[in-house]
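Can't paste images in this forum, so I'm doing it all in text. The chain is below; anyone willing to post the predicted C-alpha cells underneath?
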Amino acid sequence: MADAPTPNTNKSEIDIVKQQIQTLEGRLHSDDRGRISDIINRISALEESVDKNKEEADIELKSSYRNAAAAWALVAQLQQQMKNMEHVLESQSEQMARTTREVEDLRNRQLELLDSDEVLEERIEKLESTEPLSPTRECGPTSTPLNLLHVLPTATVASVRSSGPSHAPPTTQPTAAEPPRSWTVHVSLMPSKDTPFPFEKDTTSYKRCLSRGLHRMLAVEGNDAQSFTDAVSRAFEPLLRGRSWVPLQAKLCDAERLQGLPMLRPLEPRFLQGNYDQAFLKQHCAVLDAGGRIDSLYIAMEHDSLSWNFLRRSLVYMHGLEPAWAHDTMLDKKDEQDASRDHMGDEGDESPPAGNIVRALTGLKRRMSDISCSSLDDTELAVAKMPRTCKSSPLEIRRGVETAR
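Text version of the structure:
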C-alpha cells in the first residue's frame, strides 16, 4: 500500500503551483503591456492618418464646390448668351422677312408700273385720236395749265373742267360735241373657257400669259356692246386671229378654304347672243370693285383653245419674262410632242389647252385683291400728248394688290 501524502508534501506542491502561476501572470502582464503600447501607438498613427485624410478630403471637397459653382456660373452665362442670340436671330429673321416682303412689293410695283405705263400710253393716244383740243380751250384765259391737267387725277380734272366758263354758246348738235364716255377695264384672255380659276399672280403660268399679252388693260369707247367687242377684238387680234370669243362668268367661290376666290364658268347658252354691253357684263360676267364698277373681266375663245406651244411662238407683248418659258416638267410635258412642228399654233395644233395644265387648286388661284385692276374714273379728258419725264403722282391704276402712286 502506497504511502499517503503528508500535509507538508501537499503544501510544497501548492507553493510550487502558486509560484508557477505568479510567473505566468508576470510574463502575461509584461506581454500585455508591450502589446497595449503597440496597439496605442498604432491607433494614434491611424488617428493622425485619418485626420490628415479628412483635412485633405475637406480641401478637395471645397475645391470641388468652387469648381461646380464656377461651372454653374458658366452655364448661366452660356444660357444668357443663347437667349441673346435667339433674340438677335429672331430680330434678324423678322428683318429678313420684312426685307423679302419689301423686295417682293417693289418687284410687283415695278410690274404694275410697266402695266400702267402702257395703259397710259394707249389712253393718251386714244384721247389724241378721238378728242383733240379745240383752239379756244387751248388759249382760253381760264384754262387749266396743261402740265397741271397731266398730273391731276381724272376726278379732279373733271371738276376743273366743270368749273370753266358757262357762257359758251350752245351747240346745235350735242351728240357730236359730247362723244360717248369711255371706260377702262382689265381683261384676261384665258387659254380655255374650261379653265376653272385664274392663274395665281407671279406663278410661271401667270408670267407666261403676261409675257404674251393675255392680260391687258383696255379702253372701251362706249357702253354699248359693239364698243366692247371692238376693243377686245382689236386688242387680242394677234392671239384670236379672227376666231370668236365669249366672256366668262366670274363667281366668287363659297367653299370654306377657297372663300373669296373667283371661279370662272362659261356663260349659259341663253346669254351667248353677243350683246355684251356694259350693263350685261356688270350683271353676269365682271368682277366689281368696292364702288360697284367693272374691275376685271375674263374671256376665252368660243370653239378653240390656246396651248403653251402656241403661246411660246406668239409675239412677245411684255419683255423681261422670258425665263418663265424655260422647260417646265409640269407645264410642258404634254407639249413636247409638238416641239418639232413649224406651224404657229393655228388649226392643227393638237397641244392641250394651257388652262388644263393646272397644279393643286389651292396653289394656282389668285384672290380678288391679286386679280383686281380698278378702272379709272369714267370722266375722260382730252390732253395733247407731251413728253413725260416722270410719273403722275396721284394717278391710281391698280394691278393686283399694288397701286402705282
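Residues 132-177, 340-348, 357-405 have pLDDT under 50 and may be disordered. The first strand starts at residue 183 and ends at 189.
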